[in-house]
Amino acid sequence: MRHKGNNIKLSVNNCNVSYNDEGPDGAPIIIFIHGFPLNKSMWDKQVKALKDDYRVIAYDIRGHGNSEVGEIDFSIDLFVQDLLDFMDALKIEKTVLCGLSMGGYIALNAIENYSDRFTALILSDTNCTADSPEAKEKRMNTIISIKEKGVVKLADDLLPNLFAPESFKSNSEEIAAVKEMIVKTAKSSLNKSLHALANRKETCSKLAKIKVPVLILVGEEDKITPPESAIAMQEKIKDSSLQLIPHAGHLSNMENENEFNSQLLKFLGNIS
Ligand code: MLT
C-alpha cells in the first residue's frame, strides 16, 4: 500500500531513509534527488508546483536530512543502489528522475547502469566529469576544515558559491534555509559524502548512449557547475535540450523557481 505525505520512513539497502510522496495515485511519477550537503526540502517549491498532476517523490540521500548516516562508507554507486532499492520498495518500475548537482551525478550513473528503469531525465546544475586532482585536494582540505573549524564555517564558505550574488538580496529565506540544511548535516556524513564526490567516476563517455528525453537546466551564474558544463553534456546527449535559468546560481530551482518550474512543466507536458 502507498503511504502519502512527508517524512515517511523506509528501510532501503539496510538504511532508514526519509521521503515525501505526494500527488494522485496513478499519475506519472517523478523522483527528485537533492544536492550536497542539502536535503529533500530543497525541492519543496517543485513539489508544490507539480503535485496536482504528478506523483512527486523527494527523498533524503543517506546521511542527509532525516535519513540515517549508517556505518558504511559512501559512494555514488552506493547512492545509486539506494535509489534502485527505494524504487523497488515503492514498487516503482519506471520513473522520471530529476537530480541537482550531486543528485545529477547519481541520476547519470543510474541511467547509465539501469537504463530500462527511467523514462526521462532532468539534469540540473550538474556535470559529467570526475574531480580533477585539485578538486579532490580541495575536498580533503574541506574535511580537515570541518573537523577543526566546524559546520557553520563550512556553510559560510559554501553559500557564496551556491547562490548568485543577487540572491543574497532577493532570496534571504532560501539562503537561511540552505544554511540550516548544511549545519544540520552530521559531520560524519559530510566527510563520507566528500569522499564519495572526490572518488566519483566520469559519466561523460557514456552520455551518447542515453536514449530517453533529457532536459538540462543551469543557473546562468552557476559557479560550481557552470553553463559550459551543461552545454558540453547537451552536445553529447541525443534527445536533449538546454535552458539557462536567469537570476540564479547553482541552486537554480530555489533561486528562480518560476522559470525552473515553467521549464520543468513544459518538458513533462511534452513527454507525457
Ligand atoms: C552539490 O551541489 O551537490 C555539490 O556542489 C556537488 C559538488 O560539490 O561536486
Description:
The chain is of the alpha/beta class and 272 residues long. The chain contains eleven helices and eight strands. It has an eight-stranded mixed β-sheet with strand order 1-2-4-3-5-6-7-8, sandwiched between helices. The chain is globular and about 50 Å long. It starts with a strand and ends with a helix. The model has no long low-confidence stretch (mean pLDDT 98).
Count of alpha/pi helices: 11
Strand content: 15-25%
Main β-sheet, in a few words?
8 strands, mixed
Q: Taking Cα atoms only, what radius of gyration do you get, to the nearest Å?
A: 17 Å
The beta-strand count equals: 8
Core attributes:
272 residues; alpha/beta; 8-stranded mixed beta sheet; 8 strands; 19% strand; globular; binds D-malate
Task: Give a summary of the structure in a few sentences.
With 272 residues, this protein is an alpha/beta fold.
Question: How are the SSEs placed, and which strands pair?
Answer:
Blueprint: E1 5-12, E2 15-22, E3 29-33, H1 44-50, E4 55-59, H2 76-89, E5 95-100, H3 102-113, E6 118-124, H4 133-149, H5 151-162, H6 167-170, H7 172-184, H8 187-198, E7 214-219, H9 227-236, E8 240-245, H10 252-255, H11 257-271
Parallel strand pairs: 3-4, 3-5, 5-6, 6-7, 7-8
Antiparallel strand pairs: 1-2, 2-4
Helix pairs in contact: 1-11, 2-3, 4-5, 4-8, 5-7
Bound molecules: D-malate.
D-malate binds next to loops.
